[in-house]
TrEMBL record:
The lineage of its organism: Bacteria, Bacillati, Actinomycetota, Actinomycetes, Kitasatosporales. Signal peptide: none annotated. It comes from the Bacteria. Residues 570-599 have a biased composition (Gly residues). Coiled coil: none annotated. This is ABC transporter permease. Residues 570-603 are annotated as: Disordered.
């Protein structure tokens, strides 16, 4: 140990005085910070998933098995606020001593509801506070998976509570391994996917930053390693010397990373941009894992600093310079690039569904880790051609650039790695942020076209309930019933029956004799209804005037209530499955034509009122949806995943930006120092421009070209069968930005060389 301390001290002093020493220290600090935050985030995320699962199990409803006595009736259904789905739990206690669910201090009375604080706030513009009856209070934190969870516990009025309804089931209580769980977990990515995204979008760029940091100013340190080998220093002594160089900045960055988790230990911590609050008990539960992750960050980074140094054995092969066995990782990466790309694209399609995503994430990380090495080897080969071209043309700049590219391929790898990874991050963010499922995408398009000017109501076959519901509907809301009969040996028959006012609002003929409307006729709402399969594939929709009540459903006959706006502007009190404000019924900036024109968002129904009346009169089994709205329940989960991807990608892009900027600065310091004597001897400054053009811009252009093509090909397994989200055209802005960055780096390198040449003075050897 006595020999280690001097080596650590000398290493620390050498690092502070080395070429690009301050740049390297800054890079090491940032790399340690991001690596600590990334590994710590993995630990905290796992604890959060486990805490959510435990709280979800504790409040889960345990169905009756065998002859167990029932304590309550329960019914689960899904509703929407905007495009975010949430669970509504209808409860009826059967025993006076039955304990209420976690988070409630008492059972809701008939016609009462308890809402989570987040649901009350998110649904304020859609009348959620009265949708399920009188608001009795808020659900406590122990009854929620997370502070921002949307959840409702409700007890319907006595007159619509019938245990015989198929939606109800008997339960013994709450909690236990066999309980039925529910809640917002369905809107969050599963743990494996989240960990994969965190590894690919944050840890991979952090690893890139770590490599750039470790090798910043590498030329001078490589010469020093050879000198230490000549003086007799062994591998262990050189390793401690290297640790002493990097330990200070690495430990400082790790300490900053640890401080980033302190707020989560003190309070519930909202995360920016993802509508997510990290629950304090989950963060505290992650402390053992977090401590291990924070301890691993400096060990990994210092280990990389030791392993990526040249291994000088000291054996002489002639001459006065010690032999150095240089690492060949860049050559190995270049060889692996093409096979990794092919295996990732084709192998993903061949694996079972549950293995595809982990394999794809690992493959993408491998491809973009190998891509800079492939570009470096390609540039090394082009360097020989440039050398010959420079000799023939008499261009000193081309000759110098060719020799530099041939002799220093790893410097090229470090230079272009940031551009390649930045392109990969941009493509993956665009891919996962834009790939919606086919049906959710269609549902959003339908919502854009017709807004909430029509909704469907699936209701129990109780005539007295339906009559009470119709009487309670507000003015301007007309109803019709869609009756579809299916038989095994004939085409389905679809018939829409309603009042003359309802048929007129739908631009259908008003009369007691049925009239066929192929494809739904001219009204966009009917056309959307037919396109979504509500007519069970019937060739045409027949319409006639008649009463809505009095129809019977059966195994071969389905009944769906259709509510339409008669054209009253501004009647809506909130969209059915949209995120727009009250009264819009759809995205901002769209207009409906009003009476006589196409139905649009401005003809919105008062959906919040309709849902409240449906729950009050039809019971918890009634479902109110916009046309195609059943598939909007998946949109909230996709949007949540997209927000997470953007947050993680933004963190990764920060690492890439630091690697590109500070790493290039370190390279330019060396670039300018090496070219300064050449510029003085050449007698003109143009040699710097031509050298920078070939040695800096050419690798950048190649990295952008190869990275763009690889990104498009890597997107193929994910967007197969869907519209192309990632294509050459869609990546054009990111590619142009990367080319602009390459041009900026080239100009920066040329200017740095000119400045170094002006201040250069010869010194005695």
């Amino acid at each position: 140990m006595s020999a280690v301390r001097p080596l650590l001290r000398v290493g620390r002093a050498a690092g502070a005085a080395a070429e690009a020493g301050r740049v390297r220290a800054t890079l090491l600090t940032c790399a340690a910070l991001l690596l600590a935050v990334g590994l710590g985030a993995l630990a905290v995320a796992q604890s959060s998933f486990e805490g959510r699962a435990q709280r979800g199990e504790n409040r889960g409803i345990a169905p009756v098995e065998g002859r167990e006595p029932a304590a309550l009736l329960a019914a689960l259904r899904t509703d929407l606020v905007g495009t975010t789905s949430y669970t509504v739990v209808s409860l009826v206690p059967l025993r006076a001593d039955a304990p209420p669910p976690p988070g409630l201090d008492r059972w809701p009375r008939p016609g009462e509801a308890f809402l989570s604080p987040a649901l009350a706030a998110a649904g304020a513009g859609e009348g959620v506070s009265t949708r399920y009856g009188r608001l009795a209070g808020a659900i406590g934190p122990e009854g929620l998976e997370a502070p921002t969870e949307l959840l409702a516990y409700a007890r319907p009025p006595v007159e619509v509570t019938d245990p015989a309804d198929e939606e109800w089931f008997r339960a013994t209580g709450f909690g236990g391994p066999r309980s039925l769980t529910f809640g917002e977990s369905g809107n969050l990515p599963p743990p494996g996917r989240f960990h994969g995204a965190l590894a690919g979008l944050v840890l991979l760029p952090a690893a890139l930053l770590a490599v750039v940091a470790v090798r910043a100013g590498a030329a001078a340190r490589d010469r020093r390693a050879r000198l230490l080998a000549v003086l007799g220093a062994g591998a262990r002594a050189r390793a401690w010397f290297t640790v002493g160089e990097a330990a200070g900045p690495v430990l400082a960055g790790t300490a900053l990373g640890a401080l980033a988790f302190v707020p989560a230990m003190l309070t519930d911590l909202p995360l920016p941009g993802v509508d997510f609050v990290l629950y304090r008990p989950d963060a505290l539960g992650a402390l053992p894992r977090l401590a291990a992750a924070l301890a691993a960050a400096p060990v990994l980074l210092l280990g990389a600093a030791v392993l990526l140094q040249p291994r000088a054995g000291g054996a002489q092969r002639g001459g006065s310079r010690p032999a150095v066995r240089r690492a060949r990782l860049h050559a190995l990466g270049a060889v692996l690039f093409a096979p990794a790309l092919l295996v990732t694209v084709r192998g993903t399609e061949l694996l079972p569904q549950e293995l595809r995503l982990p394999f794809y994430v690992l493959g993408c990380a491998t491809v973009f880790a190998c891509l800079p090495a492939a570009v470096g080897v390609l540039c090394s080969g082009l360097g020989r051609w440039l050398t010959a071209l420079g000799r023939r043309a008499g261009s000193s700049g081309t000759l110098i650039a060719g020799r530099r590219l041939t002799a220093h391929p790893r410097a090229t790898v470090r230079l272009v790695a940031s551009l390649a990874v930045a392109l990969g991050l941009a493509a993956q963010t665009q891919l996962w942020g834009g790939v919606f499922g086919d049906l959710p995408a269609r549902a959003l398009a339908t919502l854009d076209r017709i807004g909430s000017s029509a909704v469907t109501v699936d209701y129990p076959a109780r005539e007295e309930r339906l009559a009470a519901f119709e009487r309670a509907l507000p003015d301007g809301v007309e109803s019709a019933v869609l009756r579809v009969r299916t038989t095994g040996d004939g085409d389905p028959a679809a018939e829409l029956i309603g009042s003359c006012a309802a048929l007129t609002a739908l631009r259908a003929p008003c009369g007691t004799d049925p009239v066929a409307l192929p494809g739904g006729g001219s009204d966009p709402r009917l056309r959307e209804l037919v396109s979504w399969g509500a007519t069970e594939g019937a060739a045409s929709l027949r319409v006639r005037e008649g009463p809505v009540a009095g129809h019977r459903g059966s195994d071969t006959t389905s009944l769906t209530l259709l509510l339409v706006s008669a054209g009253g502007r501004g009647a809506g009190d909130g969209p059915a499955g949209t995120g727009g404000p009250a009264g819009t019924g759809g995205p901002a900036g769209t207009e409906g034509a009003g009476p006589g024109g196409p139905a649009g968002p401005s003809d919105a129904l008062p959906v919040g009122t309709v849902k409240r009346l449906a729950y009050r009169h039809l019971g918890p089994e009634a479902e109110v949806n916009s046309i195609g709205g059943l598939y909007l329940t998946g949109v909230g989960g996709l949007e949540a995943a997209t927000r997470w991807i953007r947050l993680l990608a933004a963190t990764g892009m920060l690492a890439v930006t630091l690697a590109a900027g500070l790493g290039a600065l370190a390279e330019f310091l060396r670039h300018g120092r090496e070219l300064a004597p050449v510029g003085v001897m050449a007698g003109r400054a143009t040699v710097f421009g031509s050298t920078a053009l070939w040695s800096l811009l050419l690798p950048g252009v190649l990295a952008v070209a190869v990275g763009t093509l690889a990104s498009v090909w890597l997107a193929a397994p994910i967007q197969a069968g869907r519209p192309d989200v990632v294509s050459l055209a869609s990546l054009a802005p990111a590619s142009l930005a990367a080319l602009g960055a390459a041009a900026l780096l080239t100009a920066w390198g040329a200017v740095s060389a000119v400045r170094a040449a002006r201040s250069w003075r010869p010194v005695a050897a």
